Task: structure prediction
Amino acid sequence: MSGRRFLVLPWFSFLVLATNLANAQQNYGQVQGRLAEGFKEVAITGRIGLQRVQNGALNITMPVSVSGSKSTWWIVDTGAPMCMIDPPFAAKLGLQTVGQVHGDGGSFPVTKVNDIQIGNFRCDGIPCVVRSIGDLKTLGLRNENGSFEKTGLLGVNLLAKYGALINCRTEMIFFSPTGNLGLSRQKYEAMGFTYVPLNLTSGNRLEVTGNLGGKEFSFFLDTGAFSTSLTNGIREEVKVPFVETRSKAVGVFHDLGNNAQISYAEPSDFKLGAYDASGARVNFTTLNTQESASHRFAGFIGLDFLFYRSAIIDIGGRALYLKPSSIPK
Result:
C-alpha cells in the first residue's frame, strides 16, 4: 500500500533542533500564500513536529472532518497511493465497502467518501482503503495540548485529484478545484528554488528521476516517512561508502523481514534532476517494493530530505522545487 515508514533512525542529530526549525516561517512561504490567494484557492495550515522523541518520526498532519464528523488528524502521505481510513473510525461513520484493493499485507476493503472537509476545502468521491493505521494512532506531537487523535492518511489519489501543492517547510497545503494551481516555474526559480520534474506513475507514486554514482534511477517522494531510505542493492551497485548500524527498519504497513538492517551514507555523487544533493544523508536497507517506474527504483525520498531543503511539491503542476540544504552543522 503505502511507502515504508522508517521509525528507527541511525542518526539522532535532527532530534534536538527539528522542533525549533519546524516553527520557522520563511518569506517565500508567505509569497506562496499570496500567489495562491490570487487564484482564489484555499490555503490549509497543517502541523509538523517530532513524534516519539526516541525514534524521531516527523509527519505533516492535517485536521480532517469526514461526513460531518468532528475533526481528527490525518497524515499527509505522498507515499500512500490511496487515502487510508482506520476501520473503527470507518465503522463509526457507517461507511460502506465498495470494493477491494490488494497491497502489501493482503487484500483490504475500499470505501468511497463523499464528504471530506480539509479546513475550508471540501473533497468528494474519494476512495479510501479501510485498513488499520496501527502504531501511527498512538504517536503524538511533543508539547501537544489536548487530544491528537489520528484516523487516516491523505494519499496521492486525493492529492492529485485536487492538484495539491505542499510546502514542507512552512506546513501549508493548497488545493485547487481544477487540479492545478497554475503557478509558474519562473516564479519559484526567482525565489531561489531548483526545479525538478515530477511524474505521477500508473501506481499513484510521485516519481522524480535522479543520478547516484553516475547511474540513473527513479525515486518516490514519501512525506509519510521521516528518513530517506534507498535499497541495499543500489548501495552495492554504485559502491557508496557506508556506515553500518545496529538499527533495523520498521515498516508500519509492510513487513520488511527480520534482517532489514540499516546502514547510512552521504553520497558525494547524488542528484535529483538538476538539483545537487551531494552529501545528503540517506539510509540503506531492504526494500521489496515492486512498482512501475520510468527507471529502476532506488528508494524513497523522506520528509527529512524534503523539510531541510524547503521542498515545495506541486502535484498539479508536476514539479518539485528544492532549495539548498539548511541542515544544521
In short: The mean pLDDT is 79.
